Inverse folding.
């Protein structure tokens, strides 16, 4: 889709192993709003959770300044977090008492941008031929690295390393992280679930995001994953100025 100075495209795929796609995305360039959600919980809970996240975000008015829009998104996600907690009480007979989702949201307004997230879905920025990971995973692996107890490689080998420390539906109190920054001409963003970025090098991500058209960037990224095992659902949204 094209609007103003922003072009964007989104795509999702169940991958080669999982029968159900529990990912969801939002591609709304006309409102400068994009999001990716990765559901969890198994059975039908994961896809319901991610669809609830993107559906609620899609219903926002998003008026006013960027600060006001960030506040509106945060309130929306806190509301979804409560709804997911309530939904657990009516999902009976399930082995896992979890119905949740990661989320990463990108907002742009008047030369400023905000990234809002919880979990391990990511936002990357391609700027000046350099790749930046804007988000920091809310996972046990990242926590072990931050504590200085393990190197990045060692932390990834610990039991439960990929367990999330934050997510919608994971706790009564949702802790969101927000990063705000100035937008530069030529900026390109990638919002994605872990199924898309895992197994991809910074080099392959950079090569994809250097493509002139968002659909071509997604084609490059998805082809690389789907040529392999593709054990997880994969979702991406590419946004280019």
């Amino acid at each position: 889709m094209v609007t103003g100075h922003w072009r964007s495209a989104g795509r999702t795929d169940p991958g080669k192993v999982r029968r159900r796609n529990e990912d969801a995305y939002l591609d709304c360039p006309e409102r400068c709003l994009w999001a990716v959600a990765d559901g969890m919980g198994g059975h039908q809970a994961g896809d319901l959770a991610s669809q609830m996240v993107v559906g609620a975000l899609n219903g926002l008015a998003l008026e006013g300044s960027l600060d006001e829009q960030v506040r509106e998104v945060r309130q929306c996600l806190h509301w979804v977090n409560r709804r997911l907690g309530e939904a657990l009480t009516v999902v009976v007979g399930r082995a896992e008492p979890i119905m949740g989702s990661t989320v990463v949201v990108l907002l742009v307004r008047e030369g400023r941008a905000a990234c809002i997230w919880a979990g391990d879905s990511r936002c990357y920025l391609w700027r000046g031929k350099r790749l930046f990971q804007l988000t920091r995973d809310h996972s046990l692996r990242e926590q072990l690295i931050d504590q200085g107890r393990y190197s990045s490689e060692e932390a990834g080998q610990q039991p439960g390393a990929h367990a999330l420390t934050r997510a919608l539906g994971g706790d009564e109190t949702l802790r969101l992280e927000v990063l705000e920054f100035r937008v530069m001409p030529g900026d390109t963003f990638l919002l994605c679930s872990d199924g898309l970025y895992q197994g991809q090098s910074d080099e392959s991500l950079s090569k994809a995001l250097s493509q002139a058209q968002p659909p071509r960037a997604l084609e490059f990224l998805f082809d690389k994953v789907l040529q392999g095992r593709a054990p997880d659902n994969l979702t991406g949204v590419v946004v280019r100025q």
About this structure: The mean pLDDT is 89. The domain at 19-201 is CATH 3.60.40.10 (Phosphatase 2c; domain 1). The longest helix spans residues 66-87. The CA atoms of residues 33 and 107 lie 5 Å apart.
